[in-house]
Amino acid sequence: MSRTGFPLAALSLASASVLLVAGCSQSSNASKDSGDSAASASAATAEKPAPFSKGTVKVALVRQSGAGDYFEQWGNGAKAQAKALGIDLTVYDAQADNAKQATDLSAAINSGAQAIIVDHGFPATIQPEIDKAVKKGIKVVVYDVETTNDKVVSTKQDDASMASAVLDVMAKELGKDQKVGYVNVAGYAALDKRDSVWKKTTDTNGWKQAFKVGKVTDSTATDNVPLVSAALTQHSDVTGIFAPYDELAKGTVLAVQNKKLADKVKVFGADVSNADIQAMTEKGSPWVATAGTDPSAVGAAVVRTTALELAGQLNTTSVEFPAVAITQDFLRKNKIENMDQLREALPALNLAKASAADWIPNVAH
What SS3 class is residue 151? Predict the structure, then answer.
């Protein structure tokens, strides 16, 4: 949903659901990590302000991760940027356990961290701990989490622009008055924003939504295959399906292929990762377009945002990262097989200007 992805791609929870949209490799305990050796950082050109000028700065990253590789890349970007800044980063991962994330957040508060980054999570569970952190004077930056505390810095993908980018491609590919399918899950903030754009787009183009299915689990892609397959059994005449989170899109692609409809039904997703690129470019893939941010770049940008907040230089409580449309044709024509090649072909993905400062070494991937 991001990965989200939400890619939400990786997504923050807005209901009582306990699982996250997007994915990563997971670790159940707090851990230290020095960063991603594959990343490089441009040199800073100015002296560091306080508190960075006074020695090591302690930051905690409290995560809530799910299935897929979006979160792994996001975490690598965050770790690499923290390393470049000289941040002592402690990482906690609740692995889709809301109660554990609250416990992790409490541990982070008591660890002496000067700032805490909360990466995804269920608001009702973690809001009390966020409030405690703020009261203790700890800087809190959240990513794809809905929060009611106006002293918290909110960062997120621009989910409306993400949906608009890929749905513009879908409209050009399908045309007006088509019968379409929809694979999505209500209750996730990022997916709900993408849903709003979907509804407007279907109205504008006169599309008839033949079905809506979808669920989020710890195996989202696999568990959505039978749902989409069943829908396609009844509605094999749809010309396109929108699945606005890459794990949902992967399941949709498999269902379309299993029903032998890949030459008739086009899939439009959201978020982008190495696995997504492979799924889009493989022979016979019906996944023709997605839209997303680079999860590694987003992770790094969230850490830079935190650094600016610690230095008193952020001057905003909300930072959004724009998405770009990525088509199957573009990937194939440019022989793009992974995120490194995509970053080279689309430099805007690096978010180099997001939360930048001349004293911050900017990590590129």
Answer: coil
